[in-house]
Amino acid sequence: MSQFAFSLDAVDPVTGARAGRWITPHGVVETPAFMPVGTLGTVKGLLPDQLRQSGARMVLANTYHLALRPGADVVEDLGGLHRFMDWDGPILTDSGGFQVFSLAQLRELTDDRVVFRSHIDGSTLELSPERAVGIQEQLGADCIMCLDDCPAAGESAERIRVAVDRTTLWAARCRAAQRREDQALFGIVQGGIHPELRRRSAEALLPMNFPGYAVGGLSVGEAPAAMYRTLDWTVPILPPEKPRYLMGVGRPEDLLEAVCRGIDLFDCVMPTRNGRNGMAFSSRGRVRLRNAVHQRDEAPLDPECRCLACVRYSRGYLRHLFMAREMLGPILLSLHNLTFYQRLLRELRRAIIAGNAAEFRASQLARWREEP
Amino acid sequence: MSQFAFSLDAVDPVTGARAGRWITPHGVVETPAFMPVGTLGTVKGLLPDQLRQSGARMVLANTYHLALRPGADVVEDLGGLHRFMDWDGPILTDSGGFQVFSLAQLRELTDDRVVFRSHIDGSTLELSPERAVGIQEQLGADCIMCLDDCPAAGESAERIRVAVDRTTLWAARCRAAQRREDQALFGIVQGGIHPELRRRSAEALLPMNFPGYAVGGLSVGEAPAAMYRTLDWTVPILPPEKPRYLMGVGRPEDLLEAVCRGIDLFDCVMPTRNGRNGMAFSSRGRVRLRNAVHQRDEAPLDPECRCLACVRYSRGYLRHLFMAREMLGPILLSLHNLTFYQRLLRELRRAIIAGNAAEFRASQLARWREEP
Description:
Two copies of one chain form a homodimer. By secondary structure, chain A is α/β, with parallel strands linked by helices. In chain A, 41% of the residues lie in helices and 18% in strands. Chain A has 15 helices and 16 strands. In chain A, β13 (244-246), α10 (252-259) and β14 form a beta-alpha-beta unit. The longest helix of chain A is centred in the C-terminal third of the chain and has 27 residues, at 328-354. The relative contact order of chain A is 0.13. The A-B interface holds A 40-42, 44-48, 69-70, 74, 77-79, 83-86, 295-296, 298, 308, 312-314, 316-317, 319-321, 323-324, 326-328, 330-331 and B 40-42, 44-48, 69-70, 74, 77-79, 83-86, 295-296, 298, 308, 312-314, 316-317, 319-321, 323-324, 326-328, 330-331.
């Protein structure tokens, strides 16, 4: 009896956007959902209670990074990822496939495996499909990912075809390697921005009957319009009864566009990374807190937001924290940006149920353009 | 009618340690009390609610640093320090006198004033006694400090005599410059480790009838035993009915020794700075979290502590955060160390009321020696 179940509460008649409900061993995730990124078993600067206050229900951690530090066996010895990081909600681990792209200078790639030279000390970490699943079983997330070959946007169609076929091969090996039954293993569709390669990838993976499918190989350097077009071609091939996860995306506008193309799950470092750098998302558009215009501004960052940063502090104080390089600046802006992302998807979900997702998307995009 | 009142609930018959109660415009502080240091209007990495959870009731901020960044007029425009940093409890601001010591290479000192070259951009900041009080009135803390001349421990007796007399002169000018009636202005006794200079300083300041007295010029390089001896000479000269504040001190053992010599108030960067560096105070002594022995340790940092770091996490996870340079490590250990300091003084206060402060001091010092 599976501990997972995915169902749809509503599908927007105009766009096809979905309001779903995903039952996992660690709780229910209402979709569309955004997963904050906790690469090393911590969403940078935030406590689990603060994450929950932001509205987050599921978080992401990274196989490659945790395998290097502190090591998957250490996490296992310390009770697994949930106990380790004190997050009792659902967790998803990326397989390390994204590091095939992001650490391209530090790895050797064959059909058998990828070998990384550690970005920390130069030691080697070998990830085969079997090892990627094994590590993820040690870490113990609810949702785990197949190892994939993720090429950059600029690569040739031939290189991307090789990546598609390698990803198919590896998906089958991951499927065969899986031992634990309390983890949902997702397949990853590759194929860059090429419709025929996306189709080739999806059609090879669908017979393997994964409990969910991710769209990988986007947000790797292509233009937003190319990403949206690729979703237009790819999502309709995926089984409607299973969750669909767009990996590593993205900006608030990307979330709106992707949900309106049928995506259910997201992760991205943007809200936390930009927050650490003093950039805030707000209901009126982006705000750069270091800007001198905020120096004596008593107003809240975003009057429509109920997060601590907005309820308790002035823009002037937040700016001061960044000018003085105080840790509280990154903490508060990470919390704010995550709260913004969670609210955006919560309101979008409501719009889907009300049948007006397209109007909601248009109204949000229009408001964000207001910012001077 | 003053908004301040200090009273003693108990005095330990053996040591003279005091359990006091200090009413301020922003609430009551039970003494002995430790003030976390929020130099730039934030205790590094912690939210006000977390500070309160640690047990802190009063915090410290710094005149010199806030005058440079963001500027006292900016803090004033943004509603004053309480509103600015969202701390509705009592606040104390140091006058900038400590920077006469800590930034000795960056300042010119005369009887009239001290001129700093900014450690940020080389611009100048002039602090006269009048200006130090003026800035502190703009910042709006509950308790403000006279500008003092704070020499290093290694200075000659003649230099320290000059500092004593300059501090006396400046104290009179600060007293005369004070305009706000809702702030308690403390005098600062200087005199290094010289009994006759401490007496000279105290006897010159007492007629000015400050509502509280600080012991400055300690924790500037002298040995702990010399500091304790200096307190033995100095504290008895101070008026028993007023709060006594030992500036910039110190280690847990220093707090025990100083309270048992009649001190009521403390501030120090040690719990937060050491916390950021991976060093924790615990009921069994100091713990270095980076130590490899903690790698797979499921035990809490301190089983007797109720802070988030101890209740929710293993030593293994805390070590991982420091090895991976994750912000959550400094956050959790700052919170833990402050919780340790607050609990220590709370328990010491109980011991004073029970009349066994000396036994409490001895038992704590013995436990801390247990750590391997």
